[in-house]
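Field reference: sequence -> structure
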Amino acid sequence: MNLLDPNTIQDLLEKGVTLLTTHGLKILIALLTFIIGRMIARKLAEITRKVMVRANVDETLRGFLRNIIYYALLAAVVVMALGQAGLNITSFLAVLGAAGLAVGLALKDSLSNFAAGVMLIMLKFFKKGDYVTVGGESGTVAAVKIFNTVLNTPDNRQIIIPNSSILSNTITNVSANDTRRVDLVFGIGYDDDLLKAKQILERIVSEDPRVLAEPATNISVHELADSSVNFIVRPWVKTSDYWGLYWTLMEKVKLTFDAEGISIPYPQTDVHLHQTEQ
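Structure field:
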């Protein structure tokens, strides 16, 4: 076919005019539907984001939900536009549904982590900066993401834990409350002066400014053990002072007991040998 032939050109023009006459309006309506629908989807997604900001929804969840809403609306707009263009969207929707099912099965674990991440963010069991024990690991929360949570350990290791593992196990949040109780046990020998040892413990605790007046510190004889008389020492401190006070008291009690002649016994076994006549 010679494209330069006048008859050929005439045929092409006639077919073009026929195509535009038959489908031009549908294509125009489809384009307008897509453009206007995309604008509406973007606007609704932005309104949703602002509503979540006013509701103090977590930033990570805000961004994710905004994108989910936008792309879901955009997919609906595309389907509407294809329908306006005169295309049969029934087969398209069937293929899209089958593809969605296959992707869902393939990403089953990821979807489980996603659902757990949404729950963690919404329920706020912990937040960035808290020291927690989750999924068998302990550390400071660096980030709570949709699919996983990132912890930084005291020795500066980074641990990434799938959110589903966190939600299906016990969560311990050390930083949840403003105050904590320091639980210590000190043993003295049975021959040592019990009242003197108790007075020493009370003095050491009272001299530390980090110890809170309320709740009151509990210093009591807790156990008459096999080789020692054990005191419990339970002062209350701000959560941020926990380890500082813990280490300070351990050191001061040992040094003071040594200076005051109070022994700190350790488990030992005495073996007695008896000779028998043959």
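Note: The first strand starts at residue 131 and ends at 134.
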